Amino acid sequence: DKILISGSIGDHGTTILSARQDMDFSSELSSDSQALHDLVETLVTACPSIRCMRDPTRGGLAATLNELAQSAKIGMTLDEAQIPVKAAVMATSELLGLDPMYIANEGKLVAICPPDEAESLLAVMRSHSKGLEAAIIGEVIEDKHQFVQLKTEFGGTRVVDWRYADPLPRIC
Length: 172
Known about the structure:
This protein has 5 helices and 7 strands; from the N terminus they run βααβαβαβαβββ. It is of the alpha+beta class. It is globular.
């Protein structure tokens, strides 16, 4: 199966964190908070065989994928170069020593679908206003350890493990 995300990660969390800390970056950070019901309806209609969909809110993309891997008893491999991260989010994350994989999102979704339907589902996502930056970011694999692994842009591989602390305390 293939793993898709509907857009860039870390937008909401970095925006809130920078506002809470009174950091005035000369960048265009903005929250991605939005309702996704219309995107979900479009995706389910276009691809009824979607295995699952989740919002990568608390704990970000990393926690969401680890939860899915453990509950389904599978592994995942991700391609770092394919995961959309806005330049402002990357710069803010680097400045604060954070990894965008662990930063909250409020308006994105992760979808897992059969491999032969991934490209068509991606096209449907990108044709929707809430999925313009959608990408295929990885695949489901057999792994008795249930690891989520990231192929880095430098050619290495690292485990995307659970985060034990949240850089952004609960808002509500």
